Amino acid sequence: GSVGLAIPCQAFLPSMANSAFSARVSATPTRVLFGGRHGVLHLHLCCRLSGAKAALWCSVDGGESLAVASVATPGLNCRLSAQISRPVTLRSVGGDLLLRGVLRLPTLPPDAAVAEATAVA
Q1: Cα–Cα distance between 64 and 38 in angstroms, integer?
Q2: What angle do CA 38, 43, 44 make, to 5 degrees?
Q3: pLDDT tens digits for 85-114?
């Protein structure tokens, strides 16, 4: 899941809004949507929650799986710098992981937000 904590960033990215991101990843592959209206995920931290040595694997739809991070020390974490801007499948091998980062969501200009709300109503 994700945590929706708004962090103002208008001075740096006027067309994006930041939210804190936190998700538990297990051995069960989980497809997550990023890119476009789903935003861009910037992963910064990976913490091992269980297992002797846990690794984070990521694959872009239809692509090869790549190891993105690995944590072997109990209760410790590893820093990483990964930007995800397309739908991906995440899974862990060797134990559960907690991912932390920043989700940058696109914001609509006031006129576009009104037009979108009118179109939905």
Answers
A1: 22
A2: 150
A3: 999 999 999 999 999 999 998 876 655 544
